[in-house]
């Protein structure tokens, strides 16, 4: 049987040339903003965004630049297969969190072991497909979670976090990043064997997973371990933080009359809204429109009878099924994790729908049953940085 996870020979920035990794790493391809992208490309000659994202759809240039960096020693490769322990230490709302996981290769064709939880879009997959073909590598890991505690991961963290890291830097968002290399064969085997028991859910990177799997099917036998994709795997730990993803949508029904038969509607201020959203109740959410907040709470559980039972505790799904159709949305929604930004995006036509974070337990339950969540249902904070390690395809 194929092993679920494997070590690999990572490529990474040459520490003799790049002393400060904070100048070369960047956010993932799908969240880096246009202004930040322009700044990084202009300010730092070897910033990772130059091979992570194609300028003006020039994918050939990306491939050539990647090869040049390898040839000139900007990027170097390990000679020994290893696992890489990656920790991020960050502060959110005044509380310090730590999240850690293993960077490894993850088998994509082990049935019943890896579960996606979101639908994907065609355009990002076309882009990632062309990038993959240009560089012949996984440029960033997908983010995968085990719903239970992985004892070998916890033990590895206790052991290695007391040692000097392989890489260490503070990024632009003041997040402390540390990476330790696990190269000892017996320790690698112990971790890989322990992970065999895990059932994993893709938390982030659905587009990359599907593109990698498609690339494997089209290039069987061309590269070693092509049925594996680079992944960051963590477990259910305190530092696993999910933020809400609010929607800002233009609607044709500008009043809330269509929602009154189904929801209690209450005028609130921002602090009151946040407190009410934290309370356990039937489906509830907030609205910001024309400078004021409202709190909406479902009147009767009977309204959920038409909803598939596995989705009845997932507010993002209920919003898309029970609320938005009644207000007749126009165009695409805009997404943000900040109420303040949602307020700025809302105007006379656009309404901000303010949600609670998706409970991790519900995400696992839905994914394990083979079902999918609406787009942008989960946002695990912080994002994994791009440019820590690369997995190049080996002949």
Oligomer: single chain
What's the count of strands? 21
Helix content: 25-40%
Distance between the termini: 22 Å
Number of helices: 11
Large-scale geometry: globular
- Overall mean pLDDT: 92
Taking the sheet with the most strands, its summary is:
9 strands, mixed
Q: What count of structural domains?
A: 2
Structural class: alpha+beta
Strand content: 25-35%
Cα-atom Rg, whole angstroms? 22 Å
Low-confidence stretches are: none
Give an account of the 3D structure.
- This protein is α+β, with helices and mostly antiparallel strands.
- The protein has 2 domains: 5-241 and 381-392, no CATH class; 245-356, no CATH class.
- It has 11 helices and 21 strands.
- Strands 1, 4, 5, 6, 8, 9, 10, 11 and 12 form a 9-stranded mixed β-sheet that branches.
- Helix 3 packs parallel to helix 4 (122-135), helix 4 (122-135) crosses helix 7 and helix 5 (151-160) packs antiparallel against helix 6 (185-195).
- The longest helix is centred in the N-terminal third of the chain and has 14 residues, at 122-135.
- It is globular and about 65 Å long.
- The mean pLDDT is 92.
Helix/strand layout:
Elements: E1 5-6, E2 11-13, H1 34-43, H2 49-52, H3 59-71, E3 75-77, E4 83-92, E5 95-107, E6 114-115, H4 122-135, E7 137-138, E8 142-146, H5 151-160, E9 167-170, E10 176-182, H6 185-195, E11 200-204, H7 206-218, E12 228-235, E13 241-243, E14 246-251, E15 263-268, H8 270-278, E16 284-289, E17 292-298, H9 315-327, E18 329-336, H10 339-345, E19 350-354, H11 360-368, E20 379-381, E21 391-392
Parallel strand pairs: 6-11, 8-12
Antiparallel strand pairs: 1-5, 2-3, 4-5, 4-10, 5-12, 7-21, 8-11, 9-10, 13-20, 14-18, 14-19, 15-17, 16-17, 16-19
